[in-house]
Amino acid sequence: MPIVVRIDVELARRKMSVGEFADRVGLTPANVAVLKNGRAKAVRFSTLEAMCRVLDCQPGDLLEWVDEEALPQPVSDRVISADEPS
Questions:
Q1: How far is the C-alpha of 85 from the C-alpha of 16, rounded, in Å?
Q2: Largest interatomic CA distance in the chain
Q3: Does 60 reside within a domain?
Q4: Which domain does 15 fall in, by range?
Q5: Which of 10, 7, 13 is closest to 27 using CA atoms?
Q6: C or N terminus of the chain, fewer CB within 10 Å?
Q7: How far is CA 24 from CA 49, 51, 60, 62, 66, in A?
Q8: Could you tell me the pTM of the whole model?
Q9: Which pLDDT score, from 0 to 100, does residue 1 have?
Q10: Mean pLDDT of residues grouped by 10 in the chain (86 residues)?
Q11: Cα separation of 56 and 79, whole Å?
């Protein structure tokens, strides 16, 4: 997905743990992991607002558009020929 959630950078700047962040935003640590690992399909504006409030930042500090063609292709998506070394 070309939209990347950059929570790690903001948490590191504030020396805040994922657990504390999740608690203050009202998410489970598992849902924060989904956001951090790029597996989220959507983010509610209310959740984005809560994240920005807790981290005292703007939505653009947390969300970044990345060209999908520039991202490394996951191994599971690669087609490997029998003639190629794996």
A1: 43
A2: 53
A3: yes
A4: 3-69
A5: 7
A6: C
A7: 12, 9, 20, 16, 28
A8: 0.75
A9: 61
A10: 89 96 98 94 97 98 87 61 57
A11: 43
Q: Specify the CATH number for the domain of residue 23.
A: 1.10.260.40
The torsion defined by the Cα of 41, 45, 48 and 50, in degrees rounded to 10, comes to -140
Structure tokens at 49: 């607002």
Query: Would you say residue 32 lies in a domain?
Result: yes
Q: How many structural domains comprise the chain? A: 1
**Inside any domain, residue 78:** no
What angle do helix axes 18-25 and 45-55 make, rounded to 10 degrees?
120
Please, is 84 exposed, middle or buried when counting C-beta atoms within 10 Å of its C-beta (0-12, 13-18, 19+)? exposed
